[in-house]
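ok new one. same drill as before - structure tokens go in, u give me an amino acid for every spot. 274 of them this time. try not to just spam alanines like last time pls lmao
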């Protein structure tokens, strides 16, 4: 191929090589799809500032590892409160409960009732000592057992025996009722002549007193009626505060005129246990 221009031959060879390369690219390679256009520099700067202002995400709390002790069964816990009831405890033998007594009108000054509980013949027996400014007297109140015939001669000091009629437990809202013979003047009893208490446990509340400065106690409100042949001859309103810690009443208030007491208001409050 004499007479051909060397420059023309070089250009022609380069064109052929380019054409072969394009054919090979089309057949053996897939052209990638164009990537979407990214944000401009200004928009990228604003996005970076916004990201700095956002609070860092809080990592989710990992669940605590199981405690091996949780697999052990818990020891049973005794229920307390109004659902389970408040246990009523008998007074322990060998102890003495002392109450300060106030009366209206003031028939006695510096009046004090002391109760001593002893165990005799398998029963709890209650002996009482009543002291005041001008003297004292001692007597046996009876056994701490519901229905003891000796309870006929209770009069006001018999309030110490009330818990013997409560049963094993007390609950807020629970109704209470019991009765014992109403002793006739000069002694003796007869059918149809009884003293009857009817009341209800109205609340569990904090009580502040000499023996227990602050303790949870049950308040009971009721009435003591003197009944003869089915007719109420007299009655007195009574409010009681019971505490399991004292195994008895911590306070009693009686208001009303009754045949066996000269005072129209009597209050007894526990001031000592030993």
């Amino acid at each position: 191929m004499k007479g051909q221009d060397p420059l023309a031959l070089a250009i022609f060879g380069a064109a052929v090589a380019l054409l072969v390369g394009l054919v090979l690219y089309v057949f053996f390679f897939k052209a990638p799809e164009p990537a979407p256009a990214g944000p401009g520099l200004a928009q990228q700067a604003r996005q970076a500032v916004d990201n700095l202002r956002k609070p860092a995400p809080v990592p989710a709390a990992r669940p605590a590892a199981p405690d091996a002790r949780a697999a052990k069964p818990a020891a049973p816990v005794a229920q307390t409160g109004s659902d389970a009831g408040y246990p009523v405890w008998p007074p322990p033998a060998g102890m003495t409960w002392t109450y300060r007594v106030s009366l209206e009108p003031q028939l006695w000054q510096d009046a004090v009732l002391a109760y001593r509980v002893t165990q005799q013949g398998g029963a709890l027996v209650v002996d009482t000592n009543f002291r005041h400014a001008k003297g004292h007297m001692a007597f046996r109140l009876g056994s701490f057992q519901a229905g003891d015939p000796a309870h006929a001669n209770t009069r006001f000091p018999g309030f110490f025996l009330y818990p013997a009629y409560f049963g094993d437990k007390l609950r807020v809202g629970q109704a209470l009722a019991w009765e014992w013979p109403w002793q006739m003047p000069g002694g003796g009893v007869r059918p149809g002549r009884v003293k009857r208490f009817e009341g209800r446990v109205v609340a569990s509340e904090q009580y502040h007193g000499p023996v227990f400065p602050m303790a949870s106690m049950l308040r009971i409100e009721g009435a003591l009626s003197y009944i003869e042949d089915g007719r109420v001859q007299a009655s007195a309103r009574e409010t009681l505060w019971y505490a399991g810690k004292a195994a008895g009443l911590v306070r009693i208030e009686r208001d009303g005129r009754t045949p066996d007491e000269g005072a129209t208001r009597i209050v007894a409050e526990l001031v000592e246990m030993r």
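The longest helix spans residues 6-28. and btw The domain at 86-273 is CATH 2.40.360 (YmcC-like fold).
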